[in-house]
Specification:
Pfam families: WD40. This is WD40 repeat domain-containing protein. Keywords: Repeat, WD repeat. This protein is mostly beta strands. The protein folds into 2 domains: 159 residues, Methylamine Dehydrogenase, Chain H, CATH 2.130.10.10; 119 residues, Methylamine Dehydrogenase, Chain H (7 Propeller), CATH 2.130.10.10. A 4-stranded antiparallel β-sheet has the order 1-28-27-26, with no helix packed on it. Strands 2-3-4-5 form a 4-stranded antiparallel β-sheet, with no helix packed on it. The radius of gyration is 18 Å and the shape is globular.
Amino acid sequence: MSTTDSTPPFHKKLEIRQHSMAIYDLAIPVTDTVITASADCFIATWDLLSGTQKGFTIKADFPVYSIELVEKDLLSVGLNNGDLHIIDIHSKKEIRFFKKHTSALFSQLFIPQKSVLITGDADGNMAVWNTKSWEILIYLPLGCGKIRSIISSPDSEQLFIGGQDGKIRIFTTDFYNEIDSFYAHKDGVNALAIFPGSSSLLLSGGKDGYLRIWDLDKNEKIKALPAHNYAVYAIAFSPDGKAFATASRDKSIKIWDTASYQVLQKLETKTGGHSHSVNKIKWTLSGLFSASDDRRLIHWVH
């Protein structure tokens, strides 16, 4: 596999293995700090300079499936029984607790321009919360099975939902009306991302192991790529938009060139990567972060 001058190969800078079960989600509040959410019921904060825990560690009553930063001070924590906890990061205190959902909270999205938090559960229910008052604005039973991915358009005016029924649904963010839906992946849509600098190019990853690129203006599929041997669980673009990464149940992470859709690098077990399913990735100026069923958090850098 080739690399380019703009995207040199990654190598592992740091590995943290202190969770006792799978890590399902990541959040990055500030540089050199990452928060992990695990099936061991712990939410932990890590100092990437020392590789040790710092400041913020909480034990939940059930496995933690999703976390989302709300503004700079709050962390929204979704559990596998549907409980939603809002935690003040600095005081380490819970400020809100909700039991609206009754099944696992697989996905969350905070939209700062709208002051809303979107949550999606295993039964295909979507909820919209006002993050100023913490009132629930709307609760929609979509009937789409597990909602694994929620993203918004660059202008925050549209919402994209990936469901287990294989469809991508598009909503407005004024009254949350569904304005379009289309079939995208056999057995489910797991990951969504908008191409940087574009308002109409959508990238999706599915349980079928494929990546698909969609032109939303023309309502057509541009390309289908057989990306992984098993389900694609996460997609993350580089900060400059020149590359993107995909994570899969096949234990690997692939780095792709955005312009050509060519694979630049594969991070896998034999090169020090994960030994089990890779559940989540985040790409920041500090590097690429990955979390896995193998209980490891890995920090990759160029």
